[in-house]
Amino acid sequence: MKVLVTGANGFVGRGVCAVLAQRGHALVRAVRGLAPSDKPGAPDVLAVGEVNGETVWDAALRQAPEAVVHLAARAHVTRAIAGDAEICRQTNVAGALRLAEQCAAAGVRRFIFMSSVKVMGEGRACSYRESDAPAPVGTYAAAKWEAEQRLHEIAGRSGMELVVLRPTLVYGRGVKANFFSLMRAVDRRIPLPLGAVTNRRSLIYLGNLADATARCLTHPNAAGKTYLLSDGEDVSSAELVRRIAEALGRAPRLMAVSPCWLHLAACLMGQGDAADRLLGSLTVDSRAIRTDLGWRPPYTMRQGLAATAAWYRTRADEDSPA
């Protein structure tokens, strides 16, 4: 089918587009602005500018997509900027609703919305399930949850099929932020005080997320559903370091420091939230998509980390001084 993908040049967007193209779908790739590598006037790449309540989607919808994968989002909110929370909401709520309304009017059959596990909360001892009541914490999670609810309203009155995906932490080729920093620390043999951490965390490899998205595009049972997504393997922060080290061909350098002391030290440095994510547990029960759609992650976590490490090596070589 013909598929409009928003945020097509982002970390997740590149992975999703690659898999959809491999499956034979014709893509319309919507991006905020053209990159130097984009061919001017390429029929499958459209610059739409900022995604918000005023975005004009006419050019994309004139290509008559049958389905939409909405990935464009603003994930990071900077507390130092007073208006950033409203910018986040404009992108993640108003932008999603604007697109969905126009898609419904244009006759788009299915709309996939990439949400986040953060809609469920910041973690707990037992795994989240789709049937649990959402408890979003923070501007980003609250915006995603608001968008989900209002998208269901649009779908309900228009007949457009909505599928909501809530992935856990995504890693893979092009990963940035904390996961990239962790890989760099392991690669540089920096001792990490996580040896005594016994939490449990769910993650999902980009290849698995893209494969699940492709399944949700075409499977009839996905219509109207919300799915939590993971690799199906939960690991502690210490075990994740060991697996990253294995993928990079390094020996893990873990020190056993009490998680209580680590949390206290982080709070004293104003990093309590970061410590909660590193030391706490956040897992999901992803059996629903497996039962409904017969989906299985095509890659194990070990395979996903190996592919991510191979990309990291290329990036590290490019960043090295001549």
The structural class is alpha/beta
Kindly estimate the percentage of residues that lie in beta strands according to DSSP: 5-15%
Overall mean pLDDT stands at 91
Radius of gyration, in angstroms, nearest whole number = 20 Å
- For the terminal residues, how far apart are their CA atoms? 46 Å
Largest sheet: 7 strands, parallel
The backbone outline, from C-alpha atoms, is globular
Structure, explained:
- The chain contains 11 helices and 10 strands.
- It has 322 residues and is an alpha/beta fold.
- The protein has a 7-stranded parallel beta sheet with strand order 3-2-1-4-5-6-9, sandwiched between helices.
- α3 links the parallel β4 and β5.
- α5 packs across α7 and α7 packs across α11.
- The longest helix is centred in the first third of the chain and has 23 residues.
- The radius of gyration is 20 Å and the shape is globular.
- It starts with a strand and ends with a helix.
Quick description:
With 322 residues, the chain is α/β, with parallel strands linked by helices.
Keywords:
322 residues, alpha/beta, 7-stranded parallel sheet, 11 helices, 43% helix, globular
Question: What's the helix and strand layout?
Answer:
Elements: E1 2-6, H1 11-22, E2 26-31, E3 45-47, H2 58-61, E4 67-70, H3 84-106, E5 110-114, H4 139-158, E6 161-167, E7 169-171, H5 177-187, E8 201-205, H6 206-218, E9 226-229, E10 234-235, H7 237-248, H8 259-268, H9 272-279, H10 287-293, H11 301-319
Parallel strand pairs: 1-2, 1-4, 2-3, 4-5, 5-6, 6-9, 7-8
Antiparallel strand pairs: 8-10
Helix pairs in contact: 1-6, 3-4, 5-7, 7-11, 8-9
